[in-house]
Amino acid sequence: MAWPIQIKFDILEECRAFTVFQRLPPEIRQRIWEAYLSAPGVHFLKLQTRDGDWSWTERRMHNFSNFEASEDVDEEGEMAKVLERDRLPRESHQARLIPVGPFPKADVSHYKTLRKQLAILSRTCIESRSVVKRLENRAETLKLDNGSIISLGRSSDLIYLDYFPLSLYQRNGNLETIPDCPDLSHIKRVAVRFSHTWRPTKNLCKCDSCRKSARLIHQGFYPAHLYQLLARHFPNLEEFFFIDYLIVHRSRSQQGSKGIAAKGPTMLVDIGNQR
User: Fold this and answer.
1) pTM
2) What are the helix (H) ranges across 180-244?
3) Which H helix or E strand runs over 113?
4) Strand order from edge to edge, sheet including 158-162
5) SS3 177
6) pLDDT, tens digit, for every residue of 37-87?
7) Are the C-beta atoms of 177 and 139 separated by less than 8 Å?
8) Which residues contact 131 (CB under 8 A, 6 or more apart)?
9) Can you state the percent helix, strand and coil of the chain, rounding each to 5?
């Protein structure tokens, strides 16, 4: 087994400290402190009801899914129904953001690194501590209920969000209830799990099974609840990602034979929000 080559070098003593830092203009020093905290990362969170129960959502989604499946309407008519129903009052249930993982050691979110960096700057000097307080007190800063920092305001961090149990998430029901969580308004970039149960509406093929069907099309299976959650509760959303945990990279032989580059595990949809 070949061991990797280790390269070692010495740094001159006079080059180990940036001695002119204190002579820089204050605004430049503050920019340097902020740059230390500017590396973006991914935070894994989930939207949880206060009592941890989603049964009320399941009941409402089940009722409206049955209602929609019983009606044979075109896509424009269905969209009109959704928009009309969007004006109706809905139940509101308090919700909050919590870490996805139940154990801190299994949590790979970037906010663990961010909190360590904030602690270091808070102990460095008075000036760096004031920068930390200013960034933490920004209105856009995302925090948990206990005050723990998740993401600093105006950062490029990505929030991976779980918000329904898998049995509900894979359905195509509408979001007929309101998860009351004001912190969602602070999120600009969000990612959710892609489900392979979702499928588009398509015309029936000419096989024997489809010929015997009374319908002319296969009904699609769309995550309407996802579209509605993003539209109603993420007013500052700028970018949206699907994460597919089942996708695999093509092997080199497949790429060479088909001439197709390997696809990555994410799909980006830039909704171009301009405010």
Assistant:
1) 0.75
2) 208-211, 224-233
3) helix 111-124
4) 177-180, 91-99, 42-49, 158-162, 189-193, 239-243, 266-270
5) strand
6) 999 999 999 999 877 666 555 555 544 444 444 444 466 676 677 667 777
7) no
8) 30, 33, 34, 121
9) 35, 20, 45
